[in-house]
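User: quick one
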Amino acid sequence: MNIELKLQALVDGELDAREVREVEALLARDEFASLLVQELKWTKSAVRHSEAGVALPETREFFWSKVERGIAAEARNQAAPAASVAPAWWTKLLFPASGLAAMVAVLFVMSGPRSSSDDALNENVAEDINAYSFHSEAEKMSVVYVSDENADFSPVGQEVKNETEAEK
Amino acid sequence: MRLKPKSSRMFLRALLILMVVSAWGWQVATATAAPEAKVQAILVWGTDEIKPDNKSLKQLDGKLHEKLAKVFKWQHYFEVSRKSSDLPAGKSQGLKLSEECSVEIKVLPENVAEVKLIGKGKTLVTRRHSLAKAEALVLAGDDRNNNAWFVVLNFN
Amino acid sequence: MAKPLDHKTATDVELVAASQAGDMVAFEELVARHRDKIYARAFSMMRNEEEAIDLAQEAWVKAWQRLKQFQGDSSFATWMTRIVINLCLDQLRRQKRTRAESIEQLDEELGGVERQMPVVASNPTEGLERAELRKRIDKAMVQLSYEHRTVLILHEFEEMEYKQIAKVMNCSIGTVMSRLFYARRRLASLLQSLKKEQQS
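Assistant: Done. Structure below.
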């Protein structure tokens, strides 16, 4: 380990007693090493506990609806490959297994929290669309949010946005 | 002409039965028939861009702006178009909000509205919304450049 | 008969136990309690809001799947933070494979550049208000490569030891030390420049 890294390890409390004595002896006679330790110390203390506080820019309901959908999608994904790679002799087990999977799925839906599951029963979305639904009790609104990275569907006319961009 | 006591009792009994049956029939009919309602649909554009000086866009009214801003992350919400309509019972009503976007609403029995969001002629989302509670239905989605669109439906 | 769990007032330990038994409402409460911290960690590492939201979401999905593995050796928040850190590191590694190495990283590979930097012995952040200090550190950290930023985050924010960082980042302790050294020296230099900018 080079000397600079040893100085840093001293600052971070990662040296054993013998190494600490060695490095401290060096600090007493080497001014550059001493200045470097000072720099490492203030840098460390400035950074520690100075994390910028950022909050998730989505509401509790909206974020949870996405997590809930993700959990359901993962549950489906895990069930699907198991059935597709089953060898021929397993086919006898498929009926009971699928029955069990269906029961698990039903239990999963039943154990789902509050209104989101009900929301899902009340809506249909086109096959190629990924939508989340959630309910905000506080703002008295039910929301269906179409997640579309490419924004293929853009109901706000292009002319409106063009004008906006021209104004910018 | 005076009725005899026996036939009078029979007449009253028949009248009572008729009244009870009529009342029950009326109640059943009103419970199952789709009620009429009104809807107001607003197409909104959500963006973090500064307010454009654009005649066809106006800042969303304060109350709705506040509601959306509490639920969604965008800073600015502009009204693109607004349509209102009566919803005759059991009949589908279409509202065109922009060139590519319209909604079709039908009031079903049990005080439920079936709302279809149509984009480029294709039904994207069909949603059943209870009219029993005075709650808005918001159909929303990603728009280009990290913006978003909202179709806010208020029923009464 | 056992009292029903009041999710709002339950402790994390109680909520985790209920979640492990399949109670999704309990899990939703855990998400609500810790979502900002998990997102903040993802944002610190990715420096991109959309990516950070997606990774935070993925972390919660993974947590639900792995809840049975959580034994309570650490706090739930710490366990969750490890999940999101691992997801961020995977994502950053994938991104790194598809982009050219930065000059800064090449410098580090060649070695020694951090030794050439003059020492900034007097603290340029001294006397700053907490909010201003956070702002400057955030601004400086953006300019570090992801390896350097990550090692700083793990050491200073997560308070991990060298060997823990080496395990998480899948590298040697020596690499952790040299990355941390470079990151600190570069940060010191950036903070000094920011102070000069402010004064001029």
